[in-house]
Structure formats: C-alpha cells, structure tokens
Amino acid sequence: MSVAVLSRIQFATVVLFHFLFVPLTLGLTVMTAYMETRYARTGDETYLSMAKYWSRLLLVNFAVGVVTGITLEFQFGMNWAEYSKFVGDIFGAPLAIEATVAFFLESTFIGVWMFSWKRVSRGVHAGIMWVVAGASTLSAFWILLANGWMQRPRGYELVGGKAVLTSFGALLGSPYAWIKFAHVIFAAYTLTAFFIMGISAIQLLRGRKEEMFHRSFRIAAAFGIVTSIMIIVAGDLSGVQVAKYQPSKLAAMEAQWETEKGADFYILQLPRPEKEENVEALEIPGGLSLLAYHDPNAVVKGLKDFPPADRPPVLVTFTAFRLMVGLGFLFVLLAFIAVILAWRKKLSSNRWFLWIMSIAIVLPYLASELGWVVAEIGRQPWIVYGLLRTQDAVSRNLTPGDVLGSLIAFIVIYVSLAVVDVFLLTKFAEKVED
Hints:
This protein is mostly helical. It is 71% helix and 6% strand.
C-alpha cells in the first residue's frame, strides 16, 4: 500500500480510538457537576454518593483520553507535513487556543477538584466541576471549529500556494462548524446518558444500591430523551449544510447517482450506479430533496455529474450513514421507554428492559464512530474540501515501511490501553459500597 493509504489508516485508527473517550468525558463532567450541585443544594447524601461513583469512571476515561489524544497533533507534522504547510496558518490557531486555554483549564481544574474534597465548601467544589465541564466543551468547540473549516473553507486567501487566514470572524462564525459542534455535543450527551443508564441497569439487576442507581437511571433517562431528540434536529441542520457545501458527500450518503429534481428518498437502496426496481424499497416521493434542501422540488446533484476522481467511496459512506441514522431514532425510542418506566418506578418489575439497556451501552459508541466515518470518508478525496486532495497532503519523505511500522506500534499500544481502560472501568463500576 502507498504512504497515503497507510497514513490514512493510521490516522483513522488513532482518531476513532481517541473518540471512544471524548464523548463520555464531555457528558460525565456535566452529569457529575449536576449531581454534586444537587448535593450542595439539598444535602442529600445519595447525590454525593452518585457524584463520587460516576466521577471515578470519569477520571479513568479522562486519563486514557488524554494519552490517546496527544499523538494526534504530532501526526500532522509527521505524516501530513504537506497539509500542515498548506493550512498551518489557519488550522494552527484553533488548535493552539484549544491546548493553551481550554485543555489547560480542563486539566488544571480537574486536578483541583480531585484534591479539594472537604477543603472547600460544597458549592465551591461543585462549581469547580462546572468549570471542568465548560472547559471540556470549549476544547471540543475549538477542535470542531478547525474540522469545520476543513469541511467548508471560508475567510481565507491562497498566497504562494498556501491558505492564509484573512478573517478570524469568518472562521469563528462558520455555520457548518457550529452545527457540527451541536451535533457532536448532543451525541456525546446521549452516549453519556446511555452509559449511566446501562451501568445503573446492571447494578439494579444485581440488586445493589437501588436508590442510588434508580435515581441515576432516572436523571440519565430525562437527559437522554432531550439530547437524543436534539441529535436528530442537529443532524437535519447538518444535512442541509452538507447538501449546500458538499454535494458529492450528500450524493454518496444517499447513493444518488442521477441528478434529479424532486429526488425521492429510499430508506433501503443498494448503492449501485444504475437504478433497478428490485433494489429500491420504502420510497418517499421528493423525500431526499425535502430533507436536503427543505424543498420537495429542489434539484439533487447525482454522483454521475461529478468526475470519478471527485467521488467519495459510496458503499462505506452510504452504509455508515444509514446505520448512524437508524441508531439515532432507536436512541429516542429507548430513552422514551426509559423515562416512562423510571418515572413510574417500574424498572425493577421490567427486568427485560434493564437487560436491553445494559447491552445498549455500546450502541452510542458505534453511532459516534459511524458519524466520523460519514464526515471524513464522505469528504474524500479532499482533506480540505475543494482545495487540497488527501493524496497531496502526506509527507514526502516517508516510506510505506515507516508508516506501517508506526501503525503496528499504535495498534499494539492502543489495544493494550483499551484492555487497561476496560479493566479499570469494570473495577471501579463494581466498587459499590453496600
């Protein structure tokens, strides 16, 4: 394989593994802060027990997330030097702010929070965790702002073969980036809600600390029903942005080969270049035009109107998108049932649902990974959409052997980290004082 292909595989491996930890950190900081705030206001010791229990899992997840994230920025210089030369003036600014401001606050205050139990008042201690939660969210914002620029470049000029930032306001105010940020944040909160409900379900099935885990489940269910609905709203807005600025990605997501006015939406359709009646099912007339442009008569550009070299991989993009959307609607259904059973205090008598929720922990992780697959593979062959092709962005002084060796090393190290992470999460999840 070429250096470009191996570098893409390596970067995808690192990003997808790192992103297993980011969403849970974003969500657990908020949930821990909320639980501790309830304790500060009410003095209810159950909320204190909840905050301490879930914060242990947060700290394990945060630590592994930091370790796996450090290698990402090094790859821009090592594997993607031409990309760094081309967009360093633009891409470096939000990443520098993320590291020196957001991550600095997050890592500093999480340390302060860890070592200030009983040294400050309840309210101040809860406030420290809210700072951590805010800094985590701010960190995600700056990273997604940079990624949003790659998806839809704006506020720049090409000078000497390089992209130079001409308007920081245009970078900061990118609708594409803000909608992407909302989509990721709500996905992270939904993942956290299902994580809490899943762990709580396992403990309730074992009959351990029923009051604490009933309350945790109930709070997470209410949180999850709101955030899972907001994912769909943000996803719809994101689809409109994709249709407007990345029409080739939209065509790949929907396997739309022909340009059509009032394009139909097919819930099931094989991504083949030629239409056949036997591969289409559940047709919604004008549905694709309506979803993409909020106009049932809008024209949707098909893949055949793009040069073959500019078409994204269709099968992967199409399949990942369908699975992601299907899981999104499943989360709404499960969260709705969870809210009803939790508030009617019927969880213990519906053990079948507790079993479902204990298994469903993995589904938001899968959906988050699929989302990144759609976003990044659907953008191909561009690393910066319309400006720089991925094959032109790799470092020129690397050999396939160099990249393959580091790829194998990354896989070995990350698999080891995954084993350690699962072990520690399991250990601390089991540590419940009866």
